[in-house]
Amino acid sequence: MTHIAFIGLGHMGGPMAANLVTAGHTVTGFDLAPAALDAARAHGVGIAASGPEAASDADVVITMLLTGQQVLDVYQGGLLAAAKPGTLFIDSSTIDVDSARAARELAIAAGHRGMDAPVSGGVVGAEAGTLTFMVGADDADFVEAEPLLSVMGGRVVHCGGSGAGQAAKICNNMILGVSMIAVSEAFVLGEKLGLSNQALFDVSSTASGQCWALTTNCPVPGPVPSSPANRDYQPGFAGQLMAKDLGLALAALESTGTDARMGTLAADLYRHFADEGGAGLDFSAIINTIRERSGASS
Ligand code: NAD
Predict the structure, then answer these.
(1) 217 touches ligand 1 (CB under 6 Å)
(2) pLDDT in tens, 141-179
């Protein structure tokens, strides 16, 4: 049994903390939002009056926040100072690689250990304990964290040293954003050519066009009954999160001088999609934007 401090009990952090409790660990949590605290308390999470109070007794501190700045602020706002020497800090937020590395450096400087371990799998995966963890960590820290991460995830991949987990997350979601746009454009073109959505799906889902955006998260209703398109594009993976992740990819493309024109364009298209009403919809709803721009009705 491990004593875990869990900071950030939102859509993802709440159910992740609950799964740790179910597995028999002692979890003390903190969040700024009273509703998040209430939900976590109902799942057996002990509630602290502050982040530092939660961290003071913990062997492991997990953060699940929105931005790199939040993670750095929380680390420097008392979390690192309050923790016992040698505490393992695991940040599972999706943030930029530089902030992830800076967070680990701060943890090391304060006498602790640190790693990045962002996730994919969404709220459904967080609740079911089937997330994929992408981990950037030293070997020894990875070995120690892996059993805990396995409670919350179905797959735990050691991607390399500090920052490698965030790098994998950003690269994977750049593939996803680009491929969803490509699949959506193909459906709209097919519609304009008089091809039924089902016919295109039947061909491409078993041909060289197959990909997750088509076969699991199909942007048109019908061919894949479980895809968000069949429930008015309720997420799923919200457009604002795709826009955020592609924003991180764009920053990484610029800082590394990588010539990724598709990723750059996808970041631009998803930014507009999120700003113009798609923020709370599943990211596959971008097909409706493409239809509108093509003068077709959805
Ligand atoms: P969320 O907004 O629901 O949760 C974030 C929580 O952090 C909120 O409850 C907020 O009150 C809390 N918080 C902010 N500042 C705090 C502070 N100083 N101290 C304590 N708590 C604080 O967001 P989420 O959907 O749970 O996402 C969390 C992270 O996971 C993000 O980085 C997101 O990009 C990533 N992610 C989300 C999904 C998804 O489907 N929601 C999927 C994969 C990855």
Answers:
(1) no
(2) 999 999 999 999 999 999 999 999 999 999 999 999 999
